[in-house]
Amino acid sequence: MHISWQGVYPAITTKFTADGALDIAAFLHNIQAQLDAGIDGLIIGGSLGESSTITHEERIELLRATLDFVQGNIPILINIAEGSTRNAVKLAQLAQQNGAHGLMLLPPMMYKPTDRETTDFFKAVASETDLPILIYNNPVDYKIEVKLDMFEELLKYDNIQAVKESTRDVSNVTRIINRFGTRLKTLCGVDTLALESLLMGADGWVAGLVAAFPRETVAIYRLAKAGKIAEAVAIHRWFLPILELDIHPQLVQNIKLAEVMTGLGTEFVRAPRQPLTGTEREQVLDILRAGLAVRPELPDYLNL
């Protein structure tokens, strides 16, 4: 399946039962809401999907269930976040063998590699799979920056096609476009900066709060790309206090609580994470309640 790298690509949460098993029914319930809202692709097992706590086998179980459920309507990507080049290659091949349409690929985990080691890691994965690859560039959280000169080298591989831009520097969207034109597609990876990034030319949005608010997320994207900026800004201004729950160490717990509030998920997480409690939980609930109390009516964004 061709991936355009345009539109909204939820980095979907992984649903668990109370005893920590995968909850496929709850997972697919959320995906149905995403499809109804008009998403353009889906990413399984990202940071929001609790990548560090799910196995390769569980990723494939989620992949198979998703592929069967969506029936080819959107591309499905698997996230790769590994400390070993060998394990990253193995997961890429496993994803391809089981029908994934693409990969989101992080730099090596748990070791801060040099620029050369980072590019060689990406090259090793790209050379062992035919799947299109979205490079995740998040130096804030992962302390490794994929610089533009590194992308120049990586783009020699036809299947390295896009970047999840999470440097927190909106002007980087312009730098990427000025340097690479359409050779490297740019997807914003920071919810709070998505509208600004889209207005500066980003192609898509790898979203987090979309897990709980799919229609509002897709509406902002569609309105912005249709030139209906005032309408997009109005939704964004309402959404921003909620979107800020994404830029927090407990983003998984925050967003899962938001999913509960909108009827699209559960709060169960895998250790060492624990559900929010006490004052911290009440603070998040206050933000969500305030937003839901004035949740905006959306225009007919699906027909733009």
Chart the SSEs and their pairings:
Blueprint: E1 7-10, H1 24-37, E2 42-44, H2 56-70, E3 76-80, H3 85-97, E4 102-105, H4 115-126, E5 133-137, H5 139-142, H6 148-154, E6 160-165, H7 171-180, E7 185-188, H8 194-199, E8 204-207, H9 214-225, H10 229-243, H11 251-261, H12 278-293
Parallel strand pairs: 1-8, 2-3, 3-4, 4-5, 5-6, 6-7, 7-8
Helix pairs in contact: 1-2, 1-9, 3-4, 4-6, 9-10, 11-12
Tell me what the structure shows.
This protein is of the alpha/beta class. The protein is built from 12 helices and 8 strands. Strands 1-8-7-6-5-4-3-2 form an 8-stranded parallel sheet. Strand 4 (102-105), helix 4 (115-126) and strand 5 (133-137) form a beta-alpha-beta unit. Helix 9 (214-225) runs antiparallel to helix 10 (229-243) and helix 11 crosses helix 12 (278-293). The mean pLDDT is 97.
Q: Could you give a short description of this structure?
A:
The protein is an alpha/beta fold and 304 residues long. It has helices spanning 24-37, 56-70, 85-97, 115-126, 139-142, 148-154, 171-180, 194-199, 214-225, 229-243, 251-261, 278-293; strands spanning 7-10, 42-44, 76-80, 102-105, 133-137, 160-165, 185-188, 204-207.
Which secondary-structure class do the elements indicate? alpha/beta
Number of helices: 12
Query: What letter string, H or E per element, gives the SSE order?
Result: EHEHEHEHEHHEHEHEHHHH
Alpha carbon gap, first and last residue: 24 Å
Approximately what portion of the residues adopt beta-strand conformation? 5-15%
What about the largest sheet?
8 strands, parallel
Low-confidence stretches: none
What's the overall geometry? globular
Over all CA atoms, what is the radius of gyration? 18 Å
The helix content, as a percent range, equals 40-55%
Mean pLDDT: 97
| Strand order in the sheet with the most strands | 1-8-7-6-5-4-3-2
> Count the strands?
8
